[in-house]
Every structure is written in C-alpha cells, then in structure tokens.
Input
Amino acid sequence: MASKAYEALARAKQKEAAARAEKRRAEKMIMEERASALTKHFPVLDETEMQNGVPVPKVGDVDKFVAHLRELYDASLKGESSTAGAPQEQPEAQPVVADEEPQEAVQTPQEPILEPDAEQEPEQSSYTVYEPDEDDVAGMAGELRGAYGKQLRANAKSLDDGLYKGLREVENDPSDQLESLRAEVERARERFHGSKAEVEALKHRKSPSFYASMRLYAFIGNRSQDPLNRLMSRMMEQMFEAMMRRMQEEQRRLYERRREMWDAEKALKAEENRVSKRGLSPELQRINDKIQRGCESKSLGE
Output
C-alpha cells in the first residue's frame, strides 16, 4: 500500500511539473509574440523608447495594443490544439489587421470638459423696478429740510445752520445726490458680478478641474502599495483641501457682495414710501448723518 501511495504521489508531482513547464512555455510564446507585434505596430521608434531591447508603445495606443495581444493569445491557444502550419493561423497574418487599427481615431476615453453656460441673470424685477429721478431726491430733501426747520424753530434756534443749508442745496440741485446713489448701486452690482464670475471660473476651469483631480486621486489611492504612491496620494489630498478652501472663500465673498448689492438697491426702492410715510427714511437718515458729520468736522477745523 505504501509503494502505491508513493507512486501516485510521484505521478502527481510529474503532472504538476509538466503543467508548470507548459505554462512557462506559453508565457514565453506570448512574450515573443508581444515583442514581434510591438515591432510591427511601432516600426519608427527612437533609441530612448527602447527598454531591454523591446520598443515601448505610446500612451494613446495602449488600449489597441492590449486588444491585439488578446487576439494573439487566443490565436496561440487555438494553434496549440490545431494542426501546426495552418496558413490561416500564422501569426504573421494578425498584425496586418492590427496595422489598420492605429489609423482609426480611437483614443482613451476622456471626460469632456464642461464649458460654463451662458450666464443667465436672475429675475431682478423685485429690486430694479424703481429708478429714482431728480424730483424724488428734491422732494425727499425738501421734506427733510422742513422737518429740520421745525425742530430748529421749536428750539428757538436760527435757521442759519450748515445742515439746513446743505439740505436746501440738495433740494435745489438734486442731480449730484441722485448720481451718487446710482453710482453706489452700480459699484455694488459690479462687485457682486465680479465675485460671481470668479466662482464660476473656479467651477468650470479647464485645468485642473475638480472632476479630473478626483479621478486622478481615486486612481492613485486604489494603487497606493508603495511609498511613492502614498506620497502622491497625500499631495493630492492637500491640493483638494486648498481648492476647497479657495472655493469656500469665493462663495463667502460672493454672498457678501450680493448682500451689499441688495442693500443698496433696497435703499433706493425704500424711497417710494416718502409720500405715504412721514419722518426720515433710512436713506434720508444716512444723508442727514453725512451732512452732520461734515458740519462737525468743519466746526472742529475752525
């Protein structure tokens, strides 16, 4: 019984050794066919593109070359089971079809770069429906001058006051004040649209884009088995953090500019209530404060 067991074990080892030898022979045949196919696919190569006597393919032709190697490998498997020397299974016949493939415009798939869409302005009718004119400014200045004059007379003070004179000048010539209000609104709008353009440029910039960076980061992370790949993975992570911080900063600046623009436009629109409401509106109060500060600084200078 022991001798039979030893014989069976010896036969199993012989079969295993024969299988390993057959596998090595098949791998050697594949490498030889790969070298010959590379030589036929890329006949014009520099010496710098050679590695160990085997030409290195270009990056754009890797997919086509892998497909051709699969065809050669399938053909070699068929050649082992069929009669050797069949003309239709000669390895020289395969590169003829493969030589035509590099002429086709087949390249590695690339993610299309998204171009920013045409900038569509939101509906701004809620805060651009009102445009003040000179009559509005003159009327507001007149009401403010009248209220201030009543206060001076109630306190038994003279109307020969710098603030009162300033209000009278605005009432008589409201064009300067109107232009300053409009210029302030335009400046707020320009700052807002500038911040919006910066955010859109960050979202849709071509190189490097967030999408391409994420794809590259995923590619490196899945293959981080050596120190170099792990170092590149950490560098990509730091780059993502910097890009996200910049995006958040631009978003915050955009919201601030939008708030400033809306505040300036609402200040203009609020002047419509000058007829129905008595007293000082926020815009008139701001004008009053400016004139008051001017008078105080003038008195301090004297």
Remarks:
- The longest helix spans residues 227-269.
- DSSP finds ten helices and two strands in the chain.
- The chain has two domains: 2-103, 128-301.
- Confidence is low (pLDDT under 50) at residues 42-55, 83-109, 122-129.
